[in-house]
């Protein structure tokens, strides 16, 4: 899912905010009893906020969610979807977009698609009760 500032409307924004709250609450409830999951979520959220400090006004688009099931990766589907999103952004006169991702995702895809890694931060989290290092990334793309 992507968004352009010029598309902002209270109705659409309210639906998106409600959806985010719903899924965050759902994730928190699933991890109830597993406090480390909630702590890890908070760690990642803090890193995202730190990445954006002082840059929020420089971006007029965001890629908030981009995912394909593994069996559909490397077939050109993601590339075509992102091309369509780029076209949409251009119609909305979006010039600069950003996204967050991490080392559990295929972040190399964004490098391949012309995004530039701006910031990176290593944090320790817990995965299935075991400690794990996670690289968190901040990417941007200037649209032409």
Observed structural traits:
Aminopeptidase, 144 residues, 41% helix, five-stranded mixed β-sheet, 4 helices, alpha+beta, 26% strand
Q: How confident overall, as mean pLDDT?
A: 81
What is the CATH topology descriptor?
A: Aminopeptidase
Number of domains: 1
Second rung of CATH, namely the architecture: 3-Layer(aba) Sandwich
Class derived from helix and strand content: alpha+beta
Identify the CATH homologous superfamily. Gcn5-related N-acetyltransferase (GNAT)
Radius of gyration from CA coordinates: 16 Å
| Poorly predicted regions | none
Relative helix content: 40-55%
CATH class: Alpha Beta
**N to C succession of SSEs:** EHHEHEHEE
Give the strand content. Answer: 25-35%
N-to-C CA distance:
20 Å
Question: Describe the biggest sheet?
Answer: 5 strands, mixed
Q: Strand order of the main beta sheet, please?
A: 1-2-3-5-4
Shape: globular
Strand segment tally: 5
Q: Helix tally?
A: 4
What features would you describe in this structure?
There is one protein chain. This protein has helices at residues 10-30, 35-52, 77-91, 108-112, and strands spanning 2-4, 61-63, 96-102, 116-127, 130-142. The mean pLDDT is 81. By secondary structure, it is of the alpha+beta class. The relative contact order is 0.18. Helix content is 41%, strand content 26%. The longest helix is centred in the N-terminal third of the chain and has 21 residues, at 10-30. The protein has a single domain (2-142), classed as 3-Layer(aba) Sandwich (Aminopeptidase). A five-stranded mixed beta sheet has the order 1-2-3-5-4, with helices on one face. It has four helices and five strands, in the order βααβαβαββ. The radius of gyration is 16 Å and the shape is globular.
